[in-house]
Design goal:
Blueprint lengths: L14 H11 L11 E5 L15 E5 H9 L4 H9 L2 H5 L1 E5 L8 E4 L2 E4 L3 E5 L2 E7 L9 E7 L5 E6 L2 E5 L4 E5 L2 E7 L2 E9 L3 E11 L2 E6 L2 E5 L5 E3 L3 E4 L8 E3 L5 E6 L4 E5 L13 H6 L21 E5 L2
Parallel strand pairs: 4-14, 5-18, 6-19
Antiparallel strand pairs: 1-2, 3-10, 4-5, 6-7, 7-8, 8-9, 9-10, 11-12, 12-13, 13-14, 14-15, 15-16, 16-17, 19-20, 20-21, 21-22
Length: about 325
């Protein structure tokens, strides 16, 4: 496929024009609402275009684009849909995440949750969880709500179907990555998936009652209501599926972070200042060997160091 048409117009559309088209289309196919889209030159077609004119372009998913190419969908119907996009009728564009029949791996920066049901909650309400299959052979179901800074929901995920609201400033899908911006150069949410198991949040900011979780560039930062914080402590839960929340935003503004191991032992932190957070999480072993040195490398015995601030219990 040639990179330019007969008039020398490149197939590469300038970013500002693509953003204008996405916003006017409601961030999805104007015919069906699918968020996995292509940029469509309506009239004239690309081969006859001398410029990328957003007033003559829109978004179509691959299926609707193929219907146009094969003659099952007319250009006049696409023009009508451009004026009244399906996305704006619904209030969102949508897509599906492909998950398999084993619990997905959920990553938030250096936080990794395997075989976990509830991952983040706020005020007793789940913000990110993995539900079991509805029937034998069906996939696990991802559910989430990601708020933007103005309180609106940037994205909702219901049983693996994700919905991005048309009120967002920008929603873009490139490859396996969904990026939502609330203004220029301000990413509020970025998700990359590797089907059928890995779900990775690469950029996000969740705030609740003065506490916050920020995920950015493979890192994360947890901030408590008192202003104390930690950053990039490797945190991995490999535990029983029915474990409590990994990260809980409490109504009083504090954060509770829990960690589990395959034997169902969990540890709860009720403090988040750096002096009491471990540099790594070998606590399943340390709890069984309380006279061993603490994994935080303080040189103190575990029972005299982090062991004083951890509550352990068996979830079996």
């Amino acid at each position: 496929m040639a990179s330019t048409n007969k008039f020398g117009l490149s197939r590469n559309i300038p970013e500002n024009i693509k953003r204008q088209i996405r916003r006017e289309a409601g961030f999805g196919c104007v015919v069906c609402g699918n968020a996995i889209f292509q940029y469509e030159h309506i009239d004239p077609v690309f081969s006859e275009s001398r410029e990328h004119d957003p007033t003559r372009m829109t978004l179509l998913c691959a299926a609707c684009h193929d219907r146009v190419t094969r003659g099952f969908l007319s250009k006049s119907s696409v023009l009508r849909a451009k004026k009244n996009p399906e996305t704006k009728k619904r209030g969102y564009s949508f897509g599906m995440f492909d998950l398999c029949r084993v619990p997905p791996i959920v990553k938030l920066g250096a936080i990794v949750a395997r075989n976990s049901r509830s991952i983040i909650s706020a005020g007793g309400q789940s913000l990110l969880q993995v539900k079991p299959p509805e029937e034998t052979g069906a996939p696990f179901r991802l559910c989430a709500r990601f708020p933007s800074s103005n309180g609106a929901e940037a994205m909702i995920i219901e049983d693996n179907e994700w919905k991005a609201g048309v009120q967002n400033w920008d929603v873009d899908v490139v490859g396996r990555t969904v990026t939502i911006r609330e203004r220029h150069r301000r990413i509020v949410l970025q998700i990359t998936t590797t089907p059928p198991r890995l779900f990775e949040i690469t950029r996000a900011e969740i705030k609740f009652a003065k506490a916050a979780l920020k995920v950015f560039d493979g890192s994360y930062e947890l901030t408590n209501g008192d202003g104390s914080s930690i950053r990039n402590v490797p945190m991995e839960r490999i535990g029983v599926y029915e474990h409590p929340n990994l990260i809980s935003f409490e109504k009083n503004g504090t954060l509770v972070v829990e960690e589990g191991d395959p034997n169902g032992v969990s540890f709860m932190w009720t403090r988040t200042d750096a002096n009491y957070f471990p540099l790594h999480l070998d606590f399943a072993w340390a709890a069984i060997n309380p006279c061993a040195n603490c994994p935080c490398n303080s040189g103190m015995k575990f029972s005299s160091c982090h062991g004083r601030f951890l509550r352990t219990y068996n979830s079996s």
